[in-house]
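Input (AMP-fatty acid ligase):
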Amino acid sequence: MSQTQPFLSLSTLFATGRAPNHPIAFDAQGELHWQQFSAQVAALCQRLNREPAKKVALCCLDSYHFAVGFFALCYSQKALILPGNYQPSALAELSSEFDLLLCDHKIAQSTSLPHLLLESESMESASYVFKPLDVENLTLTLFTSGSSGVPKAIAKTIKQLDIEIEILQRLFDAQLTNCRIESTVSHQHIYGLLFRLLWPLCAGRAFARYNLEYPEQLIAHAGEKVALISSPALLKRLGQEHQTGAFAAIFSSGGPLSFQAAHDAQQLFTQWPIEVFGSTETGGIAYRQQVCEHQPWTLFPGVEVMLNEERCLRLRSPHIDPHHWYQTADECELLGERQFILKGRTDRVIKIEEKRVSLVEVEKRLEQLTWISESAVIPMQENDRLVLVAALVLNQTGKRQIEDIGKGKFWLQLRAELRQWLEPIAIPRRYRLVEHIPLNSQGKRLNNEIEMLFQSN
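Output:
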């Protein structure tokens, strides 16, 4: 990019437009430019206008395809559904929420749901008069792990995203002048959607079509005009790297980054990661750079907070609802009006390598198997990594199955069944068979006794 691009809102991006040769996205084969991007959005919009479907789920592994689909759905005034899990059975379970799946080739290969294939190479260019988007009346629905074990729908307006993107631009634009965006996180969740795709588009920064997956790839793709959108899941694995590179900026979200991991990133890439604290429900709440241990979080502009009786954060935010308070399950200590220390979550939705996992859902998936009458799933630390373990009570069918095929094959079969529903990170690593789940006199689970089942070896 030869010069700084004007910042355009989601509302005005297509109505104003960019220069025809302005780069939008890139991969190893080269760049895709504004002229091609806007023409493909127009072509897809015309295809979607012929579709009777009102609610469309967008599922793409390629971030460029996702961007084409996102804006085409907005301009064709479809209700935009963003599943958080692309596994075939998970999409099938969610199918009552949408009428059509708009997806790229890899997703299309694994689904039997009604779908429209989104492949930029096969799209015909089309002309289209883009007007400003009516962002207040355009909605999208994201799905995240709920406390009931069922994916929880989070509805947002495009206006709310626009407000948050403007805040990000105001806070961090100076560090990202003429930068390209590389990422290790998916666009299917709110953090990746904003940071690796929508904000770059509004700010005129080209983004990578595909994720970086390994620490050595970060080194190879580092550059003084490259910003990295990442998460603790990958950044905490940098300690073993010896080569160095430089990024213009590093963003991390999905969970708190340890001070050691922040220090390792700074040593390797010359930048302290900018951590962003928030959730699908709340959007961004606060940010920090851990230049010292126990660095407090600073609230985003416009975000107001207070604590409830359990010392959990309540907030009011312009990118949620400026008139009502939202209660979180995040225990905090306030330091003045604009800073706080985060203590941890108090509910049963946890984060493992920055993916939200509902322990209730994992138990539900175990107990829907024909062999299991009851389960208890807990997180445990194993070799500096958080994993799930499960105590299981087998029914008679399960006991017969183990006798017939043996424990080894049984565990393989169980994991294969779970893979139909759960992402790999949510599948328990270890199991123990018990006659009953340990309970106290009030009928509450004794998690310490469950943990002891796994500490013997």
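Residues 34-49 form the longest helix (16 residues).
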